[in-house]
Fold each of these.
Amino acid sequence: MNWVDYIIFAAQHSKGSASHWFRYLRKDIDKCGVLFSEQDVANLCKNEALTMFQRITLKAAFTEGTLTREHIIGLNQRAKLSMIQKVREKYEKADKG
C-alpha cells in the first residue's frame, strides 16, 4: 500500500473522529519532514473519499507553520514528567474525595 492509498484508507476508517484522524496523520509527519509531495496532497484534497474536515486538516497538516501541523507534531513528543505528575496528583485527590 502506498502512502496515498494509506491516507484514503485512514480517512475511511476515521470518519467522525478527529483524534483518530490526527493519529493517522501523525504517522506520516515527523519533525524531519513528510512522506508526501505537494502534488500528492493536492490530489488527496480532491479525493471524494475524504470529508471536508479531513481535506482541510490534511492540507494544514502538510503546511509548515500551521497550528494543525504543530498539534500533530506535538502528539509525537513524549509527555513531560512534570505534566504526568500533575495529572496523577489530580486523580489521586479525586479518588480520595
Amino acid sequence: MENQYKPYGIECNWDSEYLCKKCGGLLFYDMETKEIYCFNSKCKDYPTGIDIFKTEEADLTFLNQQLNEIERNLGQIVKTCDYYVLAWFLLERRRRIVEGFFSSGIMRIDDFLLSNEILLFIKKYKSFGIRKDLTFKAIIQLYRHYSEQLKLIEDLKEGRYLLARSPKNKIYRLKYFDIIIGEIWSGYGLVNLQSPIDVNKFRYHEVIEKIVKTPGPLISTDYAPYFERLWPFAVSAQYLIKRNYSTALKYQYSVTPADLANILSFILSLKDNKLTAIPLMNLLKHFIKQPIRDKNIKEFIDMLSGDNDKIPIVFKTDGNIILDKPTLLLFFVFMFSQHLPSIIDISGPQRMALLKKEAGSDFEKYLRNKLEEINYYCLPPSTNIGGREYDILSFSESNKDLLIIETKFKDPSPSSFSVNTLIEQEFTYEKYGLLPQVIRQQERYDLLFEKPELFQKTIGLKHKIIEYTVNAYFITKYTPLIKNYGDVRVMSDREFIEKVLHKKSTN
C-alpha cells in the first residue's frame, strides 16, 4: 500500500488483490483481456479511454431484445413437444441430480437450477404437441443460453458486471465476485460444471458425510430434529437460489408449520425414490386425514405445483401429479429454512442461525485440532488477557513460536452480492464487517507487546515474550477481501492450513 493514500481513513498498511491500492474501491476485469481496472471516478487510477455506465443508467435495450428473441424461439420449440413426456423427462433429470446430492453431498448447481427453470418455463408455454425425440436435449441447451443471458442482465443491474458506453458494449466483471460465489457454493457441496470438486476440506463436508452415513431411518414425524440433521442442505438451498434476485423470487413459498407437517407426512407415505405419477384424488385422501391444515387442498397443491410463478416441486398433468421423494425432501428442508414462526415453534431462519453458531464453534475446534496435530499447545477458548478475549492462543516451546488467531465463521449475506452493498456490509460495517474485526485483532497483537509480562504469566511461557516469534492471524471461512492489515495476516482456513501450518509442521 502506498503510504500517501489512506482508503477508509486507515493509517495502517494493508493489501488486497480485490480492492484498489489507492482508493480501496472494488476491482473489475475485462471479460475478454482479463486486464484489471478500478472504476471509482475519484480514484487517480481511473482508466482513460473507458466510459462506464452508472449501474442504474446502463442501456440494456440490446441485451433485452436478444433475451426476448431467445425466449420466443424456445417457446415455439416447446409448443411442438408432448407436454407430459417433456415434463417427465425434465423431472427425472432433476430427480437424479437431487438424489445424487443426498448421497454424495455434491450438486451440480447449474443443472439443478436449469431443471427447475425449464419446468417453470414449459408451464408458461404448455402445448399439445406430439414430439418425443431428442428435441428435449436441444431445449436444455437453448434454455441454458437463455438463462445465461438473463443472469448477465441482472448482474449488470446489480453492478456485479459493468457495461461500458465506450468502448461500446464492453463488459467488466467484479473480480471478488468470481472468487467468493464459487467458494460459498463449493463450501456447501455445490459446484459449477467447470469447478473442481473438493469434498475433503472442512466446509461442512464432514457434517454432510455424517448425515449421509448415519444408519437407521432418515426422518421421523417430528420434523424439527430432522431439520437439525439436514440443515447444511438448507443452507445449500438458500445459497443455491439467492445468487440472482429474480431467481430467489421463484422460490419464495407461502409455507406454514402446518404445511411442513403435511408435506413431511406425504413424503413418509412414498415407498421409494422413483419418479411416479399419482392421481390427485390420492393426495386429497391423504391430505384430509391430517390433523391440522392451514390451506385447502387446492391451495396446497397450487403451492407445491408452482402456481403464481414459483418453481414447481410437483407437476400437475390431467388429473395426476408427477413427483419424487428426493426432490420433495430437498424442498421440504428448504421450506423449513424460510418459514415464519408460529406461536409454539421457532422459525426456520432462527433455527438455522443457532445451528450456524454451533458450526462456528466447530470451525474453531477444527483449527485447534490442526494446531495440536503439529504439537502446538492451545489455551482454552476465549482466554481473557488484559481485558481482551482471544479465540486461539497457541504456542510451541520447541519452535519458540506464538500464534494469536481470531476466527470468523460467516458467509457473506446474499444481499451483499450487489456491488452497491458489498463494501459496506462485508468490509466496513462496524458490527460484522471484516475490516473492524481485523483492526481489533491488530489491537490484541499490540496489547501483547504493551504487557508482555502479563501474557507470559497467563500463557505459561518458559521464556520471555521477546524470545518468541509472534504472529497474528485472522482466519475466515472463505477468501477475504484483504490479505493483511498491519501485523495481521488475513486468510481463509484453507490457505492457513496449506501454507502456514504445513510449513510449520515440516520445520
Amino acid sequence: MVDNKLCEDDQKLIFGVPVSVFIIGLVTFFTIISTEMILNILPLFTTSIGGTPLILGLIAGTSVFALYILYTLWYWMEDKFTKKKVIAVSGCLISNIAKPFIGFSPSWVYVLGLKTIECSGNCIRSTSSKEYCSRRAVDEEKALQATKVFESLGLILGSFFAFYLLFISMSYSQIIFLSIIPGSIAILLMLLLKSDANQEKNGNNVIQETQQKLEKTDNNFSRSIIIIGCLEIAGLGALFLIIRAVDYISINLIFLIPLFFLISNVIFLIFSNITLKVSKIRSQKLLVIMGLFILLISCILLAIPIGISLYSLIIIILIFTFYGFYKALVTPIIRKYISDLVAENTPRKSDKYYFLLIGFIALIKCIFIGFVYFVFSFTIAFIMVSIMIFFSIRIDRIENH
C-alpha cells in the first residue's frame, strides 16, 4: 500500500484523486488531443508530399516496432532512473516537440523519422506516468478510472478538432502545426508534477513483495506472448483504413474522414469499458475472436472495389463503426496482456526481449501489406489481411485465459 502521507500534494484531492494524478490526467488529455489531430490526417498529408501505401506501411510498422523496443528498454530505464517524473517529462518533451515538425516535412522520410520519435516519446511518457500515478494514488483503481476519462475526452476532441479544421479549409500542414498548442500545454503541466524520489523505497518494497508472489506465474508468459503476436499480425493499422476511405468519398468531402474516426472512437470508448467488465467473468479469448471476426468482415468490404456514391458513404461509415467495435473488443485485452508483462513485478524480465520479435514481425507485416497495396492493388492487400485475420482467429486453440 502506498503511504498516503508521502507528500503534502497528495493530501489535496480533485474529484477524489490526488492533485498529482489529476495533473497526469490533464497531461494525457492534451497529449492525446495533439496525437489524434495528426493521426486522423497523417496518411492524407503523407500522400500529398509523395508518400505511397508502401511508405504508409513502413511508417506504421516502424512506429509499432519502436513501441515494442521501448517495452523492452523500459526495464533498463527503470533500473537506471528511479525518478519516474524525470522519465515522464522527457517522454512528454520528445513526443510533443516532434509532432508539429511533421507538418513541415518536405518528404515522407521526415514523416517517418518524426513519427517514430513521437511514438517513442509517447510510450515513455505513458508508461512512466502510469508508474508515477501508482506510487502517488492511494486508490489505484480510482486513479486509473480518472486517467481513462481524460484519455477518452482527448480521443474525441482530437478527432473533432481535425474534422473542424479541415472543414474550415485549413491545410494538413497547418493542422499538424496547431497540434503544438495542446502539446505545449501538456509539457507545462508535466513540469508542475512533484518529484517522486521519496516514494522509491516504498515502491521498491512493493515490487519485491509482488515478485516473490508471482514467481509461479512464469508459465503464462509464453502463451501471453503468442496471443499478443497473433493480435499484432491480425491487426489493421489506422493508416491503411484512412487511405482506403479516400476511395469512398469525393475529394470535397475529405474533411469527413476525421468525423468517421470520431464515430469509431466513441464506439471504442463506450464498449471498451463493457469489454473490461465482461472479460472478468467471461472468456477473454471469446471477446478477442468476436473482435477479429468483425475486423475480418471490415477487411472483406474494404477489398471490394466500389464507386463513389451515397452507397459508398454509408459503407465506409459502417466500416469505421465496425473498426470501433473491433478496437473495443481487442484493444483492452491486448493492453492488459502487455501491461501485465511490462509491469515491474513480472518475473524473468529477460524474457521480455520477445517483445522485439513481436515488433519485428509487426514491422514486416505492415511493410508487406503496404507493398502489396502499392504494387498490386488494395483488393489483394485487404485479402491478404483477411487471410492473416482468419488464421489468427485460430487463437481458440490456445487454452482459456
Amino acid sequence: MSSSRFAELPRGKGRIFWASDPLELADADESVAKIYSYVIARARGQSHAEIQSDYDLKSSLSPGVLVYPVSLEDSVLYVFVSDNAEDENINIQDKVTGVQIAFRLSAEHAALALIGKKEKAVIAKYGF
C-alpha cells in the first residue's frame, strides 16, 4: 500500500508504516480503523507472531472508541475515550487480572479505571 499520503517501507527485518498526516486528526473514524487494521494484518503476516491485546472484548466497540491500557508495577490503568456522538456500552476483561469492566461511556467523554493487581478489582474509577 503506497500513495503520496501513506507508505509502507521495508526496514531491516521489519517495515515502517508512514502517514503524511496524523491519523487521529482524520474526520472519519472508519478510515483510521481501516489503516490500523491494514497495519496489524501486515505485521501479523510479516512476523508470523500473533499480536495480542491486553484485554478481551466482551462486546464489540465502534471505531470511535479508544481503549488504552497502561500496565504499571502494581496496577493496570485503563483509559477510555469516545469520539462518538452517541453513548457506548463498554464491556472488557483485563487479561492480567481477569477483572471485567462494564459501563456506559458517555458520548464524546473519557473515563478511567484503575485495577489493582493484588486486589484483582477496580480500585479507582472516574467518568462512570
